[in-house]
Design goal:
The protein has one domain. The protein is built from three helices and three strands; from the N terminus they run ββααβα. It has helices at about 45-65, 70-95, 105-110; strands spanning about 30, 40, 100. It has a three-stranded antiparallel beta sheet. It is elongated, with a radius of gyration of 17 Å. Bound molecules: zinc ion (ZN).
Length: about 110
């Protein structure tokens, strides 16, 4: 089965310099390039922004909707997970991240 791949000029592997499909880009601390297998990651600033947006959104959205008290906290906690998931699976297509070496892989290369 052929699946449609989405590419961005920003998601270029720093090792093999080929475009990594957005479907393969993970917002984890490190993942393997599907083309060359080297350890790469999304820039730390992108992940930090993603975390800030998830937490701020989870706190502000129920508040703006008029939710207060214990229910506010009860809604905010699962909402962090929902917003982080939305960003991991949808927002990266709107705002493709820049890729960089995974620090662990750089250390491994300089030793070996
Ligand atoms: Zn690569």
């Amino acid at each position: 089965m052929l699946s449609k791949r989405t590419y961005s000029l920003r998601t270029v592997c720093p090792a093999c310099e080929r475009q990594v499909p957005l479907e393969s880009v993970r917002l984890t601390p490190c993942f393997s390039c599907p083309l060359c297998g080297r350890g790469i990651r999304v820039r730390a600033a992108y992940r930090t922004t993603q975390n800030v947006v998830s937490y701020a959104g989870a706190i502000l959205l129920p508040y703006v909707a008029g939710v207060r008290g214990v229910l506010w906290i009860a809604l905010a906690i699962p909402l962090v997970v929902v917003l982080a998931g939305l960003q991991a699976y949808f927002i990266k297509y709107l705002f493709p991240p820049t890729l960089e070496w995974c620090p662990d892989d750089v250390v491994r290369l300089s030793i070996g």
